Structure formats: structure tokens, C-alpha cells
Amino acid sequence: MASAPDSDPDPRREAHALVASARALLQELVEEGVTDSLTPPTTAGPSRDASGRVDTRPPTPRSAPPSRPDGGAAPAVSPTASAMDREAVPWADRRPTLEEVRSHLGECVRCDLARGRHSIVFGDGNPDADLMFVGEAPGEQEDLRGLPFVGRAGELLTQMIEKGIGIPRSQVYICNIVKCRPPRNRNPLPPEVSACRPFLDGQIRAVAPRVIVTLGKPAAGLLLGREVAITRLRGTWQEYQGIPLMPTLHPAYVLRQYTPENRRAVWQDLKAAWERSRA
Ligand code: SF4
Fold first, then answer.
1. Which of 69, 102, 119, 137 is the most exposed place for a label (fewest CB within 10 A)?
2. Are 205 and 91 in contact, with CB atoms under 8 Å apart?
3. Does ligand 1 come within 6 angstroms of the Cβ of 252?
4. Ligand 1 within 6 A of 121 CB?
5. Band of the pLDDT at 86, cuts 50, 70, 90?
6. Does the predicted model carry a pTM greater than 0.85?
7. 211-215: strand order across its sheet
8. Ligand 1, atom 4: nearest CA belongs to which residue?
9. Smallest Cα–Cα separation from 155: which of 231, 255, 248?
10. Ligand 1 pocket, mutate which of 192, 201, 203, 222 (most atoms under 8 A from CB)
11. What is the residue extent of each domain of the chain?
């Protein structure tokens, strides 16, 4: 039998081999829940909103003025928008109220996400909640209504809280890492996350929950300060500034990968988080 040559001279066979390895890599990334990170910020392809639907609207040019419900002039974006250093806040060494954090945020233009938003989606729920949920960023419905998790993914989260745990959604507190919708639902960029971070920290400090549940890889990665593989990390207890933290899958991911395993996994995580918050 002739031995195989070092390189295959048949370009079709080579192309097949490349496609096969690309497929294997993609499958691996899907399992890690990181496929969203493959979408470049300015991609011309279709994107999905937080509820998993394809966004068919034309992309907003980054230089375009913001669309505002009142038709008013675009807010000027602060020159500190790309600053990576954390903003000093008045509640650095004490517990603020949510109203104080919201008031300090104001009509924020600290980063480029101010350009395209309709509303600042600050947070929603019980200011004294034992259980606090942290997601990544508002989607289209959230931006329009000014409330977090109100699209299809939000409906799933609400069902899991109300039917899974058995408590009204109003009993928990829900917010996101960034408070303004990224264009075409791309992932928030590091300067945007950095600019908004003091307000997430302020919310956590104000609510002082007994347990935090992070929804999806970016929220878990941000609060834990490291890259995470969410499908491996979910369901395992972590800690953020002394507060027990339960990472789970993002409801938008569960909608996209709507398997009994994923639904059961999130339900188990939420149940464990709720029980620990009552202990
Ligand atoms: S995302 Fe946060 S920091 Fe950026 S403009 Fe909105 S509220 Fe301000």
C-alpha cells in the first residue's frame, strides 16, 4: 500500500478538511456559549435581539445622530468615553440608595452607546431584593420600554422566576452590565463596560442582595474578573465581593438552544440561588 503524501494535492479534499475543522471549532464555541463574540461590532450581517429574533433594520452608522423619542438633538458624547479608568463615585465607601445611583447616572453620555439609545435601561424590581439578576445589555424591546428583560428572553426569565421559583418577578431586582442598547445588539465594548461599571457596582451595593445570579458568559466573566466557559461554570457557586454568585445561561441562549437540558439547567440554578438566598 502506498503511504499518504505529506500534503494533499487535491484542492477539493483540502477544502473539505478545512470545512470539517471549522465546523468542529464552531461546535466547540457553541458549547461554550461564545458564538456571539464572533460577531464583529460593525458586521453587515443580520444580528439578533436579546429575544433571539433577527434584527432586520439597517445598521445605524456610528457617526449618525442618536434617535430620540422626543426628536431632540443628539447628546454630545463625553471625551472620556474611551477612558478605561473607573469613575470615582460618591458612594465609594458606603451603601448608596438606588435613587442616588440613578440620579448620579443622569442623562448619561459617558460612552458611545448614548448615541443610539432611546432609553437608559437602569434596572427594575425590589430595591431590597434577596436575589439580584445581572445580564449583559438591553435589547430592542428593553430600549423601547426602558425596562430590562421584557423581550422574548425576558418573558422566559419571568416565567422561570414566577413558575420555576414560584415568586413574583417584582420580588427580585434585575439589571444589566451596560444600561444602553449596543447597536444591532453587538456585545458591549470594553470602554463601554468600563464606563458603566461604577453604576452596576452602585446597584449591587444599594440592593445588597443575598445572592447574585449572572445571566450568560459576559456578566459572569465581568463580575468574576476572568474569562469563563459558561457551560462548564454554570451551576457552581462563585463569589463577588463576599456575595454568593450563581452563574447561569442567558435566557436568549436558552431560546436559541431550546433543549430540555438547557431549560433544566437554568431551572436548577435559579432554584439553588433562591434556596441559598432564603437560608
Ligand atoms: S452604557 Fe452606561 S456609561 Fe454608556 S452611555 Fe449608557 S448609561 Fe452611560
1. 69
2. yes
3. no
4. no
5. confident
6. no
7. 124-125, 173-176, 131-135, 211-215, 243-248, 238-240
8. 111
9. 255
10. 192
11. 86-278
Cβ atoms of residues 216 and 36 within 8 Å: no
Q: What is the CATH number of domain 86-278?
A: 3.40.470.10
Does ligand 1 lie within 6 Å of residue 255's CB atom? no
Half-sphere exposure of 264 (CA within 13 A, CB side): 3
Confidence at residue 138, expressed as pLDDT on a 0 to 100 scale: 98
> Is the shortest distance between the CB of 192 and ligand 1 below 6 Å?
yes
Comparing CA positions, the residue from 63, 64, 62 lying closest to residue 42 is 62
pLDDT in tens, 233-258: 999 999 999 999 999 999 999 999 99
Pull the grid cell for residue 59: 445598521
Measured in Å, residue 59 CA sits from the centre of ligand 1 at 20
Which helix (H) or strand (E) element contains residue 86? none
Look up residue 253 and give its DSSP letter. H
* The pLDDT value given to residue 12: 58
Q: Is the CB of residue 113 below 6 angstroms from any atom belonging to ligand 1?
A: yes
Q: Does any ligand 1 atom lie closer than 6 A to the CB of residue 120?
A: yes
